[in-house]
Amino acid sequence: MGGTLTCGKAGLTTNDAVFIDEARKNGTRFIHQPYALYSDENHETWRRLYARMLPRWRQFGNPHFLQGIDSLCLDPRRVPRLADVNRFLNPLTGFQAKAVAGYVPAFVFFDCLRNREFPTTITIRSPKNLDYLPEPDIFHDIAGHVPMHTDRAFAETLVRFGECAHTAAELVSGMRDRAARAERLSSIIRAMARFFWFTIEFGLMRSSDGVRAYGSGLLSSYGELEHSVTSPAVQRYPLQLEWAINQAFEIDHYQPLLFVVDSFDHLFSMADKLEKWMREGKLDHVAPGEPLVNEQDIESFLEAAN
To answer: How far is CA 13 from CA 82, 111, 210, 227, in A?
Structure first.
């Protein structure tokens, strides 16, 4: 964790930020937001993203999300300061955005949710990649995820989901054979990742105006947001836990299959059911396939189990 982070050249563009490169080299996971490093181009990218998403949010976004956007008082012209975001967010649900230098191992990520902290990327995509970015950026995290964190029922679901990670670590803590522990964790982590993907990232919800998006992957994508709600090419089904945890997904194209919940109380009950099934061993042998679980994710759970 040692080392002093220098400012480096101006700009916090995804895959082109000296500040982030140094943080990663030093092994620093949680960082501060060096706001002065954002370039004029970074702020212009935020402005362009926000301006073109706003009418689509109003047309296809879940009402809870729209309320969240208003509650956060985001500046449509400049990259947000996380301190300002948290000033509006924390009194509502106790959540806060927490700056990270990049990838966060699975257990650490879920434990943050349990503690009402959301690991937040501080870089922003290049203006050449407004439509698609395989990794998260601050627009995806703050404009896509965080407005939902202002809703109490949704926030409690995130906390409940984070608690599931502790259950997983607890379940393997008494197992002596490391290979068996890793195999069981790999299946559980895959199930949790799929559940997260089909709900928190790409979830749809019924509303008085029809189906609307609440998943951040949809709400931060100009093209896929409308596509998810209106396209006849998308299969939309009521959320079924046994289906979601066994359904592989790919990240590099519009999603052909999406799940719909009735409410955030419904979603919370599914997170409850996920943990119940985990304790019963029903997540120990989910279908293989994407997402692949890496060694770092497994190790993060094993460290917690110990």
So the answer is: 17, 27, 37, 28
pLDDT one-digit tens code per residue, 148-157: 999 999 999 9
Both tokens of residue 63? 């009402």
The DSSP code for 169 is: H
Q: Are 242 and 298 in contact (CB under 8 A)?
A: no
Interval 101-117: pLDDT, tens: 999 999 999 999 999 99
Do residues 87 and 16 touch, judged by C-beta distance below 8 A? Answer: no
* Residue closest to 232 by CA, chosen among 256, 262, 248: 256
Question: What CATH superfamily is the domain 18-305?
Answer: Aromatic amino acid hydroxylase (1.10.800.10)
pTM check: above 0.85: yes
Intra-chain end-to-end CA distance of the chain, in Å: 21
Angle at 39 between CA 7 and CA 146, to 5 degrees: 95
Residue with tokens 């370039």: 39
CA dihedral angle for residue 195, residue 201, residue 203, residue 204, rounded to 10 degrees: 180
